[in-house]
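Objective 1.3, modelling of assemblies. Example input:
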Amino acid sequence: MTDIEAIVIGGSAGALDALLAIVPALPEQLSCPIVIVIHLPPAQPNLVPEILSRVCARAVYEAEDKAPLRDRTIYVAAPNYHLLIERNRSLSLSIDEPVQHSRPAIDVLFESAADAYGPAVAGLVLSGANQDGAEGLRQIQKAGGVAIVQAPATASSPMMPEAAMQRVGPSAHVVRLEHLVFFLAKIAGTNGAKTRIEDLPR
Amino acid sequence: MDRSIRDVEFGLLLDAIYLTYHYDFRSYSEASLKRRVMAALVHFKCETFSRLQERVLREPQLFAELLRFLTVQVSDMFRDPTYYRALRETVVPYLKTYASLKIWVAGCSNGEEAYSLAIVLFEEGLLERSLIYATDINPESLRSAEAGVYETDRFTKFTESYQLAGGRASLSDFYSAGYGGAVLDRRLKKAIVFSDHSLATDSVFAEVHLVSCRNVLIYFEKELQERALGLLSDSLCRKGFLGLGLKETLRFSQHAAAFTELAPGARIYQKI
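Predicted structure (tokens):
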């Protein structure tokens, strides 16, 4: 199995609560960069980086154009800009048209991550009330990466996880919220041998 | 399809465009450019970048259409009202000390930002003595910018932003609604010269007091960003002003030392 070099996460309504459950519990051994798109109203100041940095020991930044991705660091997309990952493992922003009525769009981040990392990326779709992220997650899966979906029963808005499950099909790993940290640590942790995905609980 | 073959093809397409049409996209940020070219593949019904390359080499008309995908035309009047408010409050007082003004809107797309600036200058009593150069690489965008006609339903948002930006009157004073759109006032148009200019391949063409280049640099790779910033800097007179997009910064640039940050939140810099 290819080492996971980055984790990309997308969500909308209810996703912040999910992140607040996941991020503080991530183990030290999970060291790869984590890049997050969460839908927000465009005009608001982006409080997500500050909220997340309060609950974890990792560095959390609002994503800046051309910033190189660093280990043990979380990047959160800025409102009103798409966020993409370049082949040289740096971030870039764009003001291209909204995708799925969203800017930032999860699809845009995920598709760029699939192109940049191929099989070495894991994508996670969290709670949300639209279909953004489904196509992007499918691209990650197609490129050989790991496609993960928060189990709809554990999401406050199940539409986004359901759309992603439907688009990706049976190869999507549908994981309950309370198991997500464990799952991410297993596939992306750096401590010893990684568990084969097939052996993980669904 | 094999990833590496696709990457080779993508590079060759950009080479072909450069060699044939002298538009240089080779140092653009790849991820978003590739995404837009993928949309073009669908539009032109080409299965691969190679197929598109073959056609673009032989069909100049197709290239003109492809430019719409390669460049980004997303903008609004008074986009990011805080920027225009900061211009009004911190830059305009300096501009008032000059007898005549030259301003450059680099990457003007369909003209929304150039007209927004013209409105600020008009309201501050400066437009009479101002000349605004608005440049872009896309001839179709330049034509549309010159026409100054926008869909009527966009003006609700424009008006809201105009007010947040500290507009003195009513935005409706500056346009008249007609068939299929609203056309901007002739007084504004008179002050703007729209022309073709590339930050990737062209050089300095005038000395200006203010450059507004917003959400253009994010589309460039680091090296091209530096070239473009050098060009913008060289175009500015001493104590001239540079306005960037709200997510763009001079912080990591070799040109940072030539500027001071005048309105940090609004990304407005002054050349030393």
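The interface with chain A takes residues 3, 29-32, 34-36, 72, 74, 215, 217-219, 222, 225, 245, 247-249, 252 of chain B (CB under 8 Å).
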